[in-house]
Amino acid sequence: NDEKELAEHLMLVDLARNDIGKISKRKSVNVEEFYNIKKFSHVQHLVSHVTGDIRDELDSVDAFTSLFPAGTLSGAPKIRAMEIINQKEKYARGPYGGSVGYFSLNGNADFAITIRTLTTYGQRAEIQAGAGIVYDSDPTSEYNECRHKRQALLQALKESGTEVIE
Predict the structure, then answer these.
(1) Structural domain of residue 93, as residue ranges?
(2) Which residues are tagged catalytic?
(3) Which of 29, 54, 92, 142 could form a disulfide linkage to 131, CB 3.0–4.6 angstroms apart?
(4) Average pLDDT, stretch 27-39?
(5) Cβ(66)–Cβ(112) under 8 Å?
């Protein structure tokens, strides 16, 4: 019932519809799930499922090229948002905000946006998680959201016997 969270999610759905609409047949973009709550071990998310039928002259590689990086992680307008991210963020995001998936020989593809990552560098590991920033965002709440989202990865490290320094 949080107005800010609902508005943020609606913005993300609109960004996904825009990205998918660029490669889809006319009038084929649909939001098949909308505002569904999914619970995970440490967080719950509002989830919507946006689909579209790819245009006949395009293939899965064209779709991937158009969809990533996802506007839902960069913001809008996508190109300008990515320029600002490049200017403002001190470090490259690495795999965070990218995608993991595969292209199959039959033309199918399946990719997921990497919204939480654990990257290792020798004996060091780095966890990345983020939050959506909109006009009504409260910086402390967004920071706490990021800390909360990384808890499953931290727990996995701790349960493996790894020393964790936060």
Answers:
(1) 3-115
(2) 45, 72, 96, 116, 132
(3) 142
(4) 95
(5) no
